[in-house]
Amino acid sequence: MLVTLDELLPKYLHKDAAVGAFNLAVFPDIPTLISAAEELHAPIILQASPMVSEFIGYDYWGMVAEEMAKRASVPVVMHLDHANRTEDIWKALDAGYSSVMFDGSQLPFAENVRITQEVVERAKRYKASVEAEIGSVAYLGRDTHKDQLTDPKEAAAFAEVSGCSCLAVSVGTTHMMRTQTANIHFELLEEIQEEVKIPLVIHGSTGLADEQLMRMRSYHICKVNIGTALRVAFDRGLREELAKRPDDYIYKDLLQRPLQAEKEVVKHKMRLLGF
Question: Is 81 a catalytic residue?
Fold first, then answer.
């Protein structure tokens, strides 16, 4: 069934579990990821960036995800990840995405609030949910995206006035890490959850060691974003398959190994998150 973050995340505020949010790259990712969730009886958040959504087509993502979610035996969210332009968000809402993220983390506080409020109002017409970000999670190798830990008081003020459904916070992770060497500032996370009453989101979670992912379950972290781990597993599996059969050109055969590798990563992360 296709659901929103509003319908899903509050259930995990006080549970020893968090919902995995996994980034899509190609259409076969959708049935692969839903299958992993069904095997573990776990909800799942499928998310596509504006770049991927534009490349494949917002309408196609929306149609395929909605139809597969309807057939799924577990709750499925179709989420637009890290949109910093409202025009991308409007496209996603029109296409049937059940959730969107406005990433105003690079903006001044007041501007981030203003645009998030605008997105929340528009999303209500579609019965969709909205994620926002306060503080800023950096990207590995990109100096154009600031690295700024979340201030608990600022986060509380933002959550209260913006109307967002859940809030992404910066507490030590970095996007696009391939090694599990990031460290969560758990004292800061405790301060944030004392101030903020809505579900919290962690981005860049590929960089977290298994023990840290498991530890986060006891906090108010309800959504955990994982993307790079899937892409690395898919890439490694595809390269192995191409080396094994260099003259094969049948996509279905070539994609079996990388998709299975991706699926195993998803199941492993879901187990760490409490499923």
Answer: yes
